[in-house]
Inverse folding.
């Protein structure tokens, strides 16, 4: 089957620019989303499918980017039933390593291949072709998938070996570090402001010296300006990821006490009705702004 023919499941904020890059790179795409209206922008350039099964019958490679474990559990039976023998499912979602391990075993039993390739990067990074990817799974399948990921906009791809779940462990580590960086910045802002120092000046200093990196530059500005309404990654999903970190740590008896602070602040923000604000909104709690 032509390697330029792909299936793509999902049409959220992060998925849409990836779909656009693939179309622009000359791929013939079969698309499915639970809410079909989110795919209207692509209806003249791709085939919109009415079900996961319909999509999988047309392709050898299907990519999924869905919200959580529940959504991935919902779509995987139809993928297993209808993807051809030897077909590859590339899961790009941030989900639990344990779920990926369970699915991996089912795919092997059915003669199909699961590659895990969760994404590092917000939608604006996806639009700029500046995402990074953790990838794990069968070597030959990864070699086949890597050019597709680059066409999709991946700058760097980090190979975590043959076990798909390891890519998800790495991605959870990344999201944990992002969340703790935001918590730390919010607490630091609160302290300097308590001494009547301008947080703007402090932000300028840290991002020109020790913390001159994307996480502090981007999220530091969001926190400073409290620009939480235009969510590119929702607070609801941020809480989901912190809980996944806790679950992954508990499965290996790893103590991660900072997750309790993060979870508490995220839950307080959820209680204020901020579920669909940007996930950085939880820092308003740590900063004493609400």
């Amino acid at each position: 089957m032509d390697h330029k023919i792909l299936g793509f499941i999902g049409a959220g904020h992060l998925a849409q620019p990836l779909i656009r890059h693939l179309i622009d790179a000359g791929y013939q795409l079969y698309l499915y989303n639970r809410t079909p209206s989110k795919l209207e922008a692509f209806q003249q350039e791709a085939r919109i499918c009415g079900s996961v099964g319909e999509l999988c019958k047309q392709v050898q490679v299907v990519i999924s980017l869905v919200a959580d474990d529940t959504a991935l559990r919902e779509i995987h039976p139809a993928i297993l039933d209808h993807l051809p023998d030897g077909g590859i499912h590339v899961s790009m979602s941030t989900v639990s390593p344990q779920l990926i391990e369970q699915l991996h075993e089912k795919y092997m039993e059915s003669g199909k291949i699961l590659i895990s390739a969760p994404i590092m990067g917000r939608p604006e990074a996806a639009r700029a072709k500046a995402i990074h990817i953790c990838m794990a799974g069968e070597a030959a399948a990864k070699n086949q998938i890597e050019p597709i990921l680059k066409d999709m906009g991946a700058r760097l791809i980090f190979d975590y070996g043959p076990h798909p779940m390891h890519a998800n462990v790495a991605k959870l580590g990344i999201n944990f570090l992002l969340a703790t960086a935001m918590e730390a910045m919010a607490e630091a802002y609160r302290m300097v402001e308590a001494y009547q120092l301008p947080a703007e000046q402090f932000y300028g200093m840290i991002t020109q010296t020790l913390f001159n990196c994307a996480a502090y530059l981007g999220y530091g500005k969001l926190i400073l300006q409290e620009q939480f309404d235009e969510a590119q990654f929702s607070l609801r999903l941020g809480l989901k990821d912190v809980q996944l970190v806790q679950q992954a740590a508990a499965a290996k008896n790893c103590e991660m006490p900072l997750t309790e602070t993060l979870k508490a602040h995220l839950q307080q923000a959820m209680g204020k009705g901020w579920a669909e604000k940007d996930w950085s909104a939880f820092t308003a709690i740590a900063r004493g702004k609400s």
Q: What stands out?
A: The beta strands are 5-9, 28-32, 47-48, 61-64, 88-91, 113-116, 119-120, 131-135, 154-159.
